[in-house]
């Protein structure tokens, strides 16, 4: 991204900041709206850097979920069959949703420490960096969604009105990931082992979340790993839409909000409160 474009976006955002500033508190929506020019510039920069000199560019974003779909379908339909109806749609929806989490959270973890040049600039909104990481990785999910619709149509038939609930499930996952991203980003500034810890937790979380197998019923042993797993709730929402053509359970929204909002507000507060000290830590 040309430096002039970045400087212009930052200058415009600063002028808006003088109008919008209110007790130094900047909620997440306020940050995104206030710094929308800079947000778009950073998103474009990340996407260009990721696929620079790549032959197929954004097409690579489909390679990982498709390869996982191929492996899981081969193993759990022919080698160790799980007898899950419409398994291709079932597993692909899980792979896409988990793929967003597993790429966005590590990217958000290093979003502040990896942008020390920007963070050191006076007036730069540090809180925007985890947002950029989450939204950038959401692009890959959005690119793969048409393929999920096609697979769902082939296996289960045409979509119903329940598809209008998809943005709400998408928003619920984004809210959860934003809260988590802020916490790990600020933690990584002070404890550089956070990056490795996040990788281990995500690896374990993949197997403890019903991505490629059915959720455990409440009466089964170890059911708590799904009962109290926010990603299990979110996957239930995606699968209700694409596999069952039904409305997602309403409780997945308020349960996700109960966990996500405190994390989100705590993360924003920590970033705003410690923004002056973050420069010294980098």
UniProtKB/TrEMBL annotation:
Subcellular location(s) of the protein: Cell inner membrane; Cell membrane
Domain ABC transmembrane type-2: 56-274
Superkingdom field: Bacteria
One Pfam family per UniProt: ABC2_membrane
Keyword terms, alphabetized: Cell membrane, Membrane, Polysaccharide transport, Sugar transport, Transmembrane, Transmembrane helix, Transport
Positions of transmembrane segments: 55-75, 87-108, 128-154, 160-185, 197-216, 252-271
Membrane topology: Multi-pass membrane protein
Residue stretches in coiled coil: none
Protein family: Belongs to the ABC-2 integral membrane protein family.
PANTHER family, sorted: CAPSULE POLYSACCHARIDE EXPORT INNER-MEMBRANE PROTEIN CTRC, INNER MEMBRANE TRANSPORT PERMEASE
Name of the protein: Transport permease protein
Species annotation: Rhizobium brockwellii
